[in-house]
Amino acid sequence: MPPRRSNTLTEAELRLMRLLWTCGECSVQDLVSAMPEESRLAYTSVLTTIRILETKGYVEHRQEGRAFLYTACVAEQDAQQHEVRHVMHRFFGNSRERLMLALLGEGDVSSDELARLKKAIAEAEAAQKSASDEVAK
Length: 137
Known about the structure:
GO molecular function, one term: DNA binding
Keywords: DNA-binding, Transcription, Transcription regulation
Organism: Terriglobus roseus (strain DSM 18391 / NRRL B-41598 / KBS 63)
InterPro entries: BlaI_family, WH-like_DNA-bd_sf, WH_DNA-bd_sf
Protein name: Putative transcriptional regulator
Number of helices: 6
Largest sheet: 2 strands, antiparallel
CATH topology of the largest domain: Arc Repressor Mutant, subunit A
């Protein structure tokens, strides 16, 4: 039985997605040209990778003349959330708490980062309280 195809992004796929998120609609040649010269992939590698991204549902194309133009159909924030959920499920048993404790346990958290985290937690608590108040009505 062939291995199950992952719906997460490989490094090469992520590089192309970042270009699409930044540049918008691109041909394969546009993508190759937009890559830094020191890490530029071959045209055929980009073509293969962009087709894989289309199969995974991250990219769609339209034809203009003989060229295919590719566009990201998954927003960067949505892709980030998908990857975080994948890591949380795979390594932390779907526990946000265990994930956050692992991140905070590294000890490299600045006071500014802690302040933003506290603010995000307070906002999440307020949103949850508001939602439960609506249900209680």
